[in-house]
Write a structure and sequence with these properties.
The chain has eight helices and seven strands. With 229 residues, the chain is of the alpha/beta class. The structure holds S-adenosylmethionine.
C-alpha cells in the first residue's frame, strides 16, 4: 500500500496521466501527484518543479519519505523556464489560475509537440486556458470534474495537433465536460452557467452593454446541454 493518498482534485489530475510517460509537475508543492503516480506503477521518471524554495523542500521530503529521490528530479523554476526542452511528455500544471497556466505554456514553445500532453487543473478562468489551448493548436481530449464537497474543480487534458480549430465562446466555458454524463460534470456546467447569469444580470441592471456577448454564450450553453429557456 502506498504512502500517498490524493484528494479527489489531485486524483482527477493523476487519472489523466499516461502510463509510462515522463511527467513534469510544474508548481508541484508537496510532489504528491508524482509520488502517487510512482507508488502506483503508473510512471517511473519525473521532474517536480516549483518557483519557490519552500514548496520544493516539501517535495524533497515527500520523495525521501517515499524512497523515490533517485527517480524524480527537483528543479527550481518559474513555469517551464528551467525545465530542459523535451524532457517530459506529460506536463502537469495544477492548482493555479487558468491565466497563469496559459502564460506558463506561452513561454515554452517546445510544448507544441505532438508527443506532449498537457494536463491542467485551473482553479479559475478555465475558459481562458481552453481558448489558449485551442488557439495554439492543442485539441482538448478529456475533462474530468471533481469535488471536495465544497468546491467543484475541472482537470483538462490536451494534445498538440497543430490544428487551430475555431471554437465558440460557449465551448471555452464548458469544453469537453459537455460530453460527459456524470453528475459532477453537469454540476460544474451549472456552476459556470450561474456565474455567467449573475454577471449578465449585474451588467443589465447597471445599464452596461453586453460587450462580451454573455446572453449568446448563456443561450448556446443551454442549447448544448439540451435545455430550452
Ligand atoms: C496552490 S499550489 C498547488 C500545488 C499542487 N500543484 C496542487 O495542485 O495541489 C501552487 C504552487 O504553484 C507554485 N507556483 C506558483 N506560480 C508558479 C510559477 N510561475 N511557476 C512554478 N510554480 C509556481 C507555488 O509556489 C505553489 O507551490
Amino acid at each position: 500500500m502506498g504512502k500517498i493518498k490524493l484528494d479527489s482534485r489531485l486524483l482527477s489530475v493523476a487519472s489523466l496521466v499516461r502510463k509510462g510517460s515522463t511527467v513534469a509537475d510544474v508548481g508541484t508543492d508537496h510532489a504528491y501527484v508524482v509520488a502517487y503516480l510512482m507508488e502506483n506503477g503508473i510512471i517511473e521518471k519525473a521532474i517536480a518543479s516549483d518557483i519557490n524554495k519552500g514548496p520544493l523542500e516539501n517535495a524533497r521530503q515527500t520523495l525521501i519519505d517515499c524512497g523515490i529521490t533517485d527517480k524524480v528530479t527537483l528543479i527550481l523554476s518559474d513555469g517551464l523556464q528551467n525545465i530542459p526542452e523535451n524532457s517530459a511528455d506529460d506536463i502537469v500544471i495544477a492548482g493555479m489560475g487558468g491565466i497563469l497556466i496559459s502564460e506558463i505554456l506561452e513561454k515554452a514553445p517546445w510544448v507544441k509537440n505532438e508527443k506532449v500532453q498537457i494536463i491542467a487543473q485551473p482553479m479559475t478562468h478555465a475558459e481562458t486556458l481552453r481558448k489558449w489551448l485551442c488557439e495554439n493548436g492543442f485539441e482538448i481530449r478529456r475533462e474530468v470534474a471533481s469535488t471536495d464537497g465544497k468546491r467543484l474543480y475541472v482537470a483538462i487534458s490536451a494534445e498538440y495537433t497543430g490544428n487551430k480549430a475555431e471554437k465558440s465562446k460557449a465551448y471555452y466555458y464548458v469544453g469537453e465536460l459537455i460530453k460527459n454524463s456524470d453528475e459532477l460534470s453537469m454540476k460544474y456546467i451549472d456552476k459556470t452557467l450561474n456565474s455567467l447569469n449573475k454577471k449578465y444580470c449585474a451588467q443589465k441592471n447597471a445599464g452596461v452593454s453586453d460587450e462580451d456577448g454573455l446572453e449568446k454564450i448563456i443561450f448556446e450553453i443551454n442549447t448544448l446541454i439540451g435545455r430550452t429557456q
